[in-house]
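Section 5: illustrative case.
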């Protein structure tokens, strides 16, 4: 989750590296596959080597971590010296560099604050999917509060056997981040969620990656409630768990 801990800037720490500290960080890194991939692909100093050591050599990992922190302390010291020198100069170029240093410092402090109070923002967010069924065709629907209408891909409509019900008089173009062709609308089809059968209207789109976007229109129609604390969608007295991945 806190991927910045292993970046060139944040691996550096004013605290000495202990074996326990290094081992905790190593285990955290090994348990985060996304972060391991990022480190392996990184162009930062020793980052791919750090990732490999985390996987296979705890002792070497601790050594690399210590070296990385020493490099960071040295870099911090050099930046401090440069900053003090810029403060003593009055040329426009020096003032511009000073302003950039101060800006970078503010960004770093903002990052540190975010890592402390909202570390979740640096992790991977699992989208809200529900297992659903239409005409015995099993699929999943993405619960999407940014979609005004409930949307279905043409491929899914064909798989569910409802493509023949598309009313082409409702064809058009959807505009948002880019544009997409609307083929029409299926005015009513039964969407099975758990043991509920919900009559739903579907806007059919040609280029749609998700099978179904469960939009605000049907959420309001069926009086749903998204409960993020418990990871469920509440609807008609039922609590339906979101898919974990």
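Designed sequence:
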């Amino acid at each position: 989750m806190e991927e910045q801990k292993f970046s060139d800037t944040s691996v550096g720490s004013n605290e000495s590296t202990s074996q326990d500290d290094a081992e905790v960080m190593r285990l955290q890194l090994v348990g985060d596959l996304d972060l391991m991939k990022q480190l392996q692909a990184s162009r930062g100093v020793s980052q791919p080597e750090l990732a490999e050591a985390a996987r296979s050599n705890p002792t070497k990992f601790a050594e690399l971590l210590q070296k990385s922190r020493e490099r960071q302390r040295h870099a911090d010291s050099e930046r401090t010296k440069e900053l003090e020198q810029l403060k003593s100069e009055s040329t426009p170029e020096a003032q511009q560099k000073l302003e950039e240093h101060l800006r970078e410092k503010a960004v770093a402090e903002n990052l540190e604050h975010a890592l402390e109070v909202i570390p979740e923002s640096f992790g991977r967010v699992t989208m809200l999917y529900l297992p659903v069924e239409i005409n015995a065709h099993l699929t999943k629907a993405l619960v999407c509060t940014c979609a005004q209408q409930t949307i279905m891909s043409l491929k899914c409509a064909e798989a569910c056997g409802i493509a023949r019900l598309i009313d082409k008089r409702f064809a058009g173009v959807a505009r948002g981040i880019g544009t997409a062709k609307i083929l029409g609308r299926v005015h009513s089809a039964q969407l099975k969620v758990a043991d509920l059968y919900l009559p739903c209207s579907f806007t059919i789109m040609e280029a749609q990656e998700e099978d179904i976007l469960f939009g605000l229109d049907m959420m309001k129609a069926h009086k749903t409630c998204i409960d993020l604390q418990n990871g469920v969608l509440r609807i008609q007295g039922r609590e339906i768990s979101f898919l974990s991945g």
